Amino acid sequence: MEKKEEKIKSIFSLDQISDRPVSRKGCPTPEDLLKSFAPEAPFEFKERIIDHLIRCPACQQEFELIKNYYNLASQVETKILKKYRDNGFFHRSKDFFFSSGISRKLVTASSILLLLTIFSFLLFFNHQKDLETRGNTVNLSPAGLIEDISPSGETVVKLRWNPIPGASFYRVEIFDQEMAFLWKSGRLTETSLELPENLTDRLKNQKFFFWQLFIYSNDQKLIESQVKKVNWPTQ
Amino acid sequence: MRSRKRKEKEFQKIINNFSSFIRSHVLKHNLQKFGLDPEDIIQEIKLKIWKIIDDEKNITYPPSYLKKVVESAVIDQIRKVRKEEEIFISERQKLISENEPKFNPYLDQDCPKKEFILRATEQLIESRRIVVKLYLLNMNLLEISDYLHYSQDKTRNLLYRGLADLQQILKEMGFDYGKKGRKN
Ligand SMILES: [Zn+2]
């Protein structure tokens, strides 16, 4: 029985599909493909997407990609982030209270209650603040991030980008090849930046490095660029 | 800090799985020709997610933030490939003479078995139909449940009945399972 099911499924397998692209007119947009994963998307919408996918290997391939990206996100969320959210500061401070020898239960209980109130207020406040800044984070793409590296003599790295309408200032972050954070610029009003010499020297030990542009707009929104990888020019 | 090390290890494990998927996806579909470098994709996604994980105050990140990061990365990739596909097609179109019949490898004329199964699928009861289609699209039970927002029990029930129905219909239609999965 299972063998038969597998056989039927294998007929739909992507391995058999020719890689010659065809026009994608009439295909759902990538946004629609993503939207079909949302729990609140109407059933009819999901059904329409699935009916298309089952006849369109190109979209099927993208669907599979999205599925795996979501799997990644939910694994990170449940196996790492959630765990740390649950084991955060609150739990530690509770342990402290119980071990610190305050004997009168009433005092302890009411203190915890008070703390709880304060923490939930803080959490709520942080969350609100968060929605104002990070909640509005959008990805900038294509960002038009360009780097000029002096071809000979002393290495000078200059980063530049296209001006973004509505930006009040920019900030650049640099990461090494292992994606560890290295350096952050101050507030920039220009649309270019020459990296400091000592940073360039450190970067030269890397095979490549990454940079990312953060755009702060007047209305408090933060826009993140794509992460740009920079290979050193071959001499 | 021990917790950082632990997080790093856990993250590495998760990202390794994902990396091998991305590599094989890019290679399998020959996406390098569209300028997708699997290592770049992996690095970018690694960097972005690690920034969220490594933030000591990560309690302030709403869960939807990670989802957004991941969505924008996948959208970028898909857009890039589609754009390159368009260029490829219009270049090729210039080379192909007008009266040559248009061959569309994504259509299923060359895979009658697939068409046969699809016709059988359409005969399934509505609630079982979509579950079976998702199964054919290579989704497992958990993924189907998540996608349709059904409980796993409900999904399992619908899937098993749907597959049994499908086999019955195929049998009545005289479908030959044969040896294959491949065309020709
Ligand atoms: Zn399509």
Q: Can I get a quick summary?
A:
By secondary structure, chain A is an alpha+beta fold. Chain A is built from 7 helices and 9 strands; from the N terminus they run ααααααββββββαβββ.
What does this structure look like?
The complex is a heterodimer of chains A (235) and B (184). Chain A is an alpha+beta fold and 235 residues long. Chain A folds into three domains: 26-87; 88-135; 138-231, Immunoglobulin-like. Helices cover 45% and strands 20% of the residues of chain A. Chain A has seven helices and nine strands, in the order ααααααββββββαβββ. Chain A has helices spanning 2-11, 30-35, 43-53, 57-86, 89-99, 105-133, 197-204; strands spanning 138-140, 145-149, 157-161, 167-175, 181-184, 192-194, 208-217, 222-225, 228-231. In chain A, the strands form two sheets. In chain A, strands 1, 4, 5, 7, 8 and 9 form a six-stranded mixed β-sheet that branches. In chain A, strands 2-3-6 form a three-stranded antiparallel β-sheet, with no helix packed on it. In chain A, β7 and β8 form a beta hairpin. The longest helix of chain A is centred in the first third of the chain and has 30 residues, at 57-86. Chain A is extended, with a radius of gyration of 26 Å. Chain B has 184 residues and is an all-alpha fold. Chain B folds into two domains: 2-95; 112-172, Winged helix-like DNA-binding domain superfamily/Winged helix DNA-binding domain (Arc Repressor Mutant, subunit A, Orthogonal Bundle), CATH 1.10.10. Chain B contains seven helices and no strands. Chain B has helices at 2-28, 38-54, 63-95, 112-122, 126-136, 141-148, 152-172. In chain B, α2 packs antiparallel against α3 (63-95) and α6 (141-148) packs across α7. The radius of gyration of chain B is 22 Å and the shape is flat. Mean pLDDT of chain B is 83; it is low at 103-109 and 180-184. Chains A and B meet through α1, α2, α3, α4 and α6 of A and α1, α2, α3, α4 and α5 of B. The structure holds zinc ion.
